[in-house]
Amino acid sequence: MARELGDHCYNIPSESIYGEITANSIMKLCSGIVFAREITILDIGSGSGYTLCNLAKAFPKNKCNLIGIEVSTIRAELSRTIIPKIIPPNVNRWDIIEKDILKLKNLSKIDLCFSFDKTFTKDLMKHIIDLQMDSCFYVISCHSYEEKNWIEMKRVPCRLRGSGQIITFFVYIKKI
Ligand SMILES: C[S@@+](CC[C@H](N)C(=O)[O-])C[C@H]1O[C@@H](n2cnc3c(N)ncnc32)[C@H](O)[C@@H]1O
After folding, report:
1. Is 70 close to ligand 1, i.e. is its CB under 6 Å away?
2. Ligand 1: distance of its center to the CA of 46 in Å?
3. pLDDT tens digits for range 70-83
4. Distances 16 to 47, 48, 71 between C-alpha atoms, Å
5. Backbone angles phi, psi at 165, to 5 degrees
6. To 10 degrees, what angle do helices 23-30 and 50-57 make?
7. Domains within the chain, CATH numbers bracketed
């Protein structure tokens, strides 16, 4: 299936990329989040890599380290060719880890963890939330999480690139 990704067009037989959200939507999701230091951003299921780069753009005053975890070899490889073309100047380091998140037992400390997880199964979400509880401060997800673990939660309607479709995301700040 062919799909346009900004200036980079690709064609992956039998792979449909379920589209990323717009850069404006990412700005909305990150508005109000402030860090006074270098930050680490993780995208669980990082797909094409566009969202990771747009997340870094939402924090122009911070040096950013980007990590993507992606189960699909073809998407991980694709993102490794796209990211160098679109990477913003405030990114220190980036890495795409080709792995099933279910096989990860822990994460390093993450400041902001994003996942476009609308289609993720219950088991997968439970595993992701367990990892996030240990490691992540801000969490952005399509799923609504149990409120007891978070000091703040907001709902943000986001647009899909190249379509009028709206997807609701949730932004959480962990209790510490
Ligand atoms: C809706 S796409 C989102 C892509 C990107 N995060 C974005 O927002 O544009 C979901 C991605 O999650 C990946 N994924 C699904 N299950 C996964 C798993 N168990 N471990 C890692 N990645 C997974 C898919 O291959 C797909 O690329």
Report:
1. yes
2. 5
3. 999 999 999 999 99
4. 11, 12, 14
5. -65, 140
6. 50
7. 20-174 (3.40.50.150)
